[in-house]
Amino acid sequence: MTAHVLVIDDDALVRDSIAAYLSDCDYQVSVANAAQAGIEALQESQVDAVVCDLKMPGMTGLELLKRVKAESPSLPVIVVSGAGVMDDVVQALRLGADDYLVKPILDLEVLYHSLQKALQRAHLEEENRAYRQYLEKTNTELKRGLDELRNDQLAGRQAQLRMLPEELDFGDIRCRHSVTPSLLLSGDFLDYFELDDDRLVFYIADVSGHGASSAFVTVLLKNLTYRLKRNFRRGSSDDVIHPAKVLERVNSELHASELDKHLTMFYGVACLKTNSLVYSVGGHFPMPLLLTNTGASYLEGRAMPVGLFREARYQEHAIELPTNFSLLMFSDGILEIMKESTLNEKEEALLALVLESNGNIDRIATALGVSDAQEVPDDIAMLSIARGSL
To answer: What's the distance, CA 270 to chain centroid?
Structure first.
């Protein structure tokens, strides 16, 4: 689009020659023979630049410049002055004039280049201003979106916390847990519940990834185990007491959900009548630790994670539970915060920490510096199933 230039000069010869030259340079040109007339012209039409004489009767060019810059700070103004008024030129530059030319202008191409430079500067400033406004608007919208997302995640976090079990005393067995998320929503999950008068079901799971999609899998897991428990009590299915079948059901539902998620999981059923534990492992690491009066050791068992392969099958393991024991289960986030350098060293250190803490997960958390206020690199879940005194 052709730039519109306003030429203000009381000297008709100078004014008309500048206007004619700029017209030849494809500018749209308006003229005014006095500063007040120039002000009126600026109010009546959109002007892209002003060429203004400093010495005019009535309102001077400096007074005009002050008014122009007060109302339109970015409007380019080029002042024209006689050789003997350099103090006015300096004042004009301080007031915001883009350039000055000394009368008589022998080569009007100098004016053309000065005008081009001023218009380019104004154009860049306008682009920068528009970009800043765009960024401010975008940042405001982004902040609003982030606030909404955070509120949604806080609501999701509360829902997820409500899904976690309350501390449970089942006969003489005590169930305690701790979950520390790396984000508001956790991919770690655990649960335990009484199945009947003799059996306690418990599990710990670590979903791949973080955030909402991983947290959604924990909802799926909670829903599945609830359905299995309900079916058992209705007498329609006893899958819930068979750990391998449960892992296979979780594997099947994960594939059906098409969430592209997998998890590691340890699922166990403790029977008070027989003092036995039946469990199955789906790639969970570290393995649970069994602490007794004679020491502590990792349980046996290895298998692929749940949700990776449709036809995955899982094995069941059975052990006898001593009179006094503490079974400690951790998600792999616990290993992330341990200072040891190798995996074997971390496992040995965790074993020593379980012995030193006597199986108390609060002491373990304190020893590792885990708290709700601390940022952790990965979700950390801890579950304790204990009986008697060690």
So the answer is: 41
Number of neighbouring beta carbons within 10 Å of residue 136: 10
Confirm if 24 and 2 have CB atoms less than 8 A apart: no
Spell out the alpha helix ranges (H) of 175-242. Answer: 211-234
Number of H helices, E strands in the chain: 10, 16
Q: Which fold has domain 4-130?
A: Rossmann fold (3.40.50)
Adjacent-strand bridge partners of 328: 289, 384
Contact 121, 76 (CB under 8 A): yes
Buried b (16+ CB within 10 A) or exposed e, 333-362: bbbebeeeeeeeebbeebbebbeebebbbe
Give 3-state DSSP helix, strand, coil % of the chain, rounded to 5: 45, 25, 30
Half-sphere exposure of 225 (CA within 13 A, CB side): 29
Q: Per the structure block, which two tokens stand in for 379?
A: 């979700």
State how far the Cα of 200 lies from the Cα of 283, in Å rounded to an integer: 22
pLDDT tens-digit readout, 26-63: 999 999 999 999 999 999 999 999 999 988 888 988 99
Condensed to tens digits (0 to 9), the pLDDT of residues 293-333 reads 999 999 999 889 999 999 999 999 999 999 999 999 999 99
pLDDT 10s digits, 255-272: 998 888 999 999 999 999
The rounded distance, in Å, linking the Cα atoms of 9 and 15 is 6
Task: Provide CATH code, domain 164-387.
Answer: 3.60.40.10
Q: What is the pLDDT of residues 81-115, one digit of tens each?
A: 876 667 888 888 899 999 988 888 888 999 999 99
Q: Where do you find CATH 3.40.50.2300 in the chain?
A: 4-130
